[in-house]
Automatic annotation (TrEMBL):
This is PCI domain-containing protein. It comes from Bondarzewia mesenterica. InterPro entries: CSN3, PCI_dom, PSMD3_C, TPR-like_helical_dom_sf, TPR_PSMD3_N, WH_DNA-bd_sf. GO terms for molecular function: enzyme regulator activity. Residues 1-26, 474-490 have a biased composition (Basic and acidic residues). PROSITE patterns: PCI (PS50250). Pfam families: PCI (PF01399), Rpn3_C (PF08375), TPR_PSMD3_N (PF25573). SMART domains: PAM (SM00753), PINT (SM00088).
Amino acid sequence: MADVEMKPADEKAKVEEKKDENDAKETPPAPPSPAAEIKSNAALIERAVSTMEPRFTHRVLRTLTALRKRLDYKVLHDAVVEVFPKDSPTKTSLLAWLPDVPVSEQPMEVDPAPTPSKSSPPSEPAPEVEIYLRLLILHRLLTSFSTYGKAMELAHETIEKIQSLNRRSMDAIAAKVWFAVERTYELSGELSEARSLFLAAQRTASLRHDDETQASLLNCLLRSYLQYSLYDQADMLVSKTTFPPSAGNPQYARYHYYIGRIKAVQLNYTAAHTNLQQAIRRAPPAKTAPGFYQAIHKLFVVVELLMGDIPERSLFRHPVLEKALSAYFDIVKAVRTGSLSEFQATLSKHAAQFEADKTYTLIVRLRQNVIKTGIRRLSLSYSRISLRDICVKLHLDSEEDAEYIVGKAIRDGVIEGRIVHERGWMECGGQKSAYGPEISEMFSRRIGYCLDLHNQSVKAMRYPLNAHRKELAAAEGAREREKELAKEIQEGDLDEEDAMGGDF
């Protein structure tokens, strides 16, 4: 047996030290505190204003959802104190909206280091920074029922300040402020009273070509109409306005969701299905906005059932949707089996949830789909069946109802057969062919969806500014070099072999 060479203890210790160093390097840095993040966001907004680059402002607003969950009054107090100079009037007005922070929690004031007499004192931040901090304070005030009144006052004062300043560099933040204003009215139970304010602001935004604010206000108005079931007015608003194509994906997702609800109520299920698909594709990730993700899929499942399709089972196993769609899964099972009694029992069991989700009236329409599914199953199982047996199996009231429903199913092309009225039965024909105009229509819808997805992806691509000028400059330089070479060859200073690179 060969001897095994043992490694010295010193080498083992060195290997372990290297592993510890690698682990220390791989450890991610600690995230910044909320106050430090607000301060860095204020610096980015200042940079966006000075360089006229709105992408820095959009970068700040993308962190708003995660940041507002970590806010408290102490964090906001510290951020306002650090961002604004000591004797700033804006700082005083912002601190007035915050409750008094206990003395033990206030940061210790440190005298600033002595600076040369030539250096100027810290300047006042841009007005966009003030509006951003007002937005954060407004979101914090909306977390408690007792501060809704104060939030309403702050919302009105912020809107007046935005309209008086009228700065185009403030458009992105103003769109978020309008959403917070709509949320303030909704939580206070006064959403209908804000409609005139939103309509006036929407007209102003459209005249100024402020696309972001216009998209936010259109969504606020649609939500206000749908909250009070004013579907005709919401449809009129959609027909009379144009949603700005440069709006962001979150605004587009909300807009498509609201249009999907309007079209579903108007019995236009194909258009509703298309808009809901767009809303799902453009919506934020499920873990980022779970409530919106669940609301879209609840309506999407009902619309698919109304179109005669059965949703995929994997949809109900999604970790974010599994619990929220449990009642809808029971409805899907009742529709799939064609059992009218099971459908009625499920509908009465989950009626409260369907009312809260505002899908109850749509689910009631599924009764005809359940009956059609049951008739289709019977037509595949029997070549001839009496109308009395159809009443028993589908739990219908009378044979007349059964005859009417079966006749309508035959006329609509759901089944192939005929009714023998004298003998009181239904004779079923062969199974319907799988190829026909319905298949071509389905392929046309899919092809149209893919082409639309391709066009939107091309429109969303971003290209570096003035990149074509570099290519033009390079081509122009190459042409100049060619002219110089040709001139030297003509003058005899350079022969053709030297121009081609010398001897082979």
